[in-house]
Please model this.
Amino acid sequence: MDTDNWITAVLALRKAERIVVFTGAGISASSGIPTFRDTDGFWNRFPPEQFATWDGLLKTALTRPHQVAEFVLNVVAPIAKAHANAAHRAVSRIERHTTTTVVTQNVDGLHQAAGSTHVHEIHGSLLEVIDTSTQQVIKRFQRDELIRISETLEKYTHKKISLVSFLWELRQCFPFDWRGRHRPNLILFGDALAEPAWTEACQAADQCDLLLTVGTSAAVYPAAMLPDRASKAGATTITIDPHVRGECWLQGNSETILPKLVSDAFGPAD
Ligand code: APR
Model:
C-alpha cells in the first residue's frame, strides 16, 4: 500500500464536507456476489450479447429458456443470500460523519441494508419490479422472496418442472401481467440510466469535494465518467480496487481497506 496515498486519503476523508462514494461489483464481492469482468465474472460465463440486453434475453428465452433461467438464477441466488459486508458498513459509517451520497452500479440493495440512506442505484435494483409503461415501482421484494424465486429457478434449470409449472410457480412470487409490462427494475446495455438517480448522481459529483471510487472496472459509460466529472469540478478523488488503478490508488480489497480508512479518519467504530 502506498503510504503517501493512504495519508492523503485519510486527511481528505477527515476534511471533506460533501462526499460521493461511487461503487461497483467489487464492493459486494466478499458478500458472495460475483463481479462481471473478473476471471469468474458473469460475462465470462454468460455472453453479454445474449444476456445483457432485453432483446438478447428474449431471443435466448425463445430458443433456450433453460439458459435464461440459469442466468437469472446466477443473478438472483447470490443477491438473495447476500448480507452487507464490512465495506458497505464502512460506507454507511462515513454518512454518520459527513454529508454522503452513494452512487452504486450494483442492484443488490446492500448499501441500504448496511444503513446508507442516500443511495442512487443508477443501474436499477433487483429488489424492485417496475411497470414499464409508467416506470413506476409496483413491488419491492424482501430478500426471502428472492430466495423463493431462486428456489423455483433452481427446480426449473435442473429440469425438475415443466416450463408451464415454472411460470405458474414464478407467478406466485413475481407480479406478471398479461401485457408483459412488469419487469425487474434493471438497466441493461442500451437502456438509459435510472432516473432521477442518474441526474442526482451527476449533481452530487459536481458538488462534492471528495469522490471515493470503490470496486469498479470503470468499463461502462456513462457511469464511469463520474470520477472524472467530480475531479473536473475540483474534488479530490480516491480509488479503492485490487487491480484497477486510479487517482490516489489504495490497492486492495474494499472489505479490508474501507473499514481501516474510515477508522483512521474518524476513530474506531463504536
Ligand atoms: N474489493 C474491491 N474491488 C474489488 C474486489 C474487492 N474485494 N474484488 C474485485 N474488485 C474489483 C475488480 O478489480 C474490478 O475492478 O471490482 C471491479 C469489478 O469490475 P466489474 O466486474 O467490471 O464490475 P463493475 O465495474 O461494477 O461493472 C460495471 O458493467 O456489466 C455492467 O451493469 C454491469 O454495473 C455493471 C457495470
